[in-house]
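Sample intake sheet
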Amino acid sequence: MTPEQVELRALIDELFVEFGEVAKKRGIVLKANLKTKIVLHVDRVYLYAIMKNILSNAIQFTPRGGKVTLYVHKKSEVVALSVANTSEQLISEEQDQDAYMDNDEIYGKGSQLIYQFTELSGGEVVVRHEEQGGSIFTIYLPAYRGTLA
């Protein structure tokens, strides 16, 4: 693991370029809600893999005409990156069948990477399924506290 300064807007733009065409072909609106410059001190490769996995699942399980939104919030020393979609879940029933329990959290095979890389980065993962449909997958990471280069 090699932590470095990672500016979230640049990383999100890169991810949206990668997933933009797929979302468009599926009739899914892909948008980000990031209002201020936020920098994390994390391994960029890990963070990219985490966000790529979450966005991939969100697009995969969002029906045509749906929406996938990435919200970024910074509160004190923590940055929350939340991906919300307009489907029933971000983890498929097939993944749920292959899941295992650990510390009262459910991990599907496709989600193990997200949990492991987030923990290695000093963060945590929270998944919430909305009653009206859709899921919110949030990772919490420590905010960068040093002087920006």
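Comment: The longest helix spans residues 8-25. The first strand starts at residue 3 and ends at 7.
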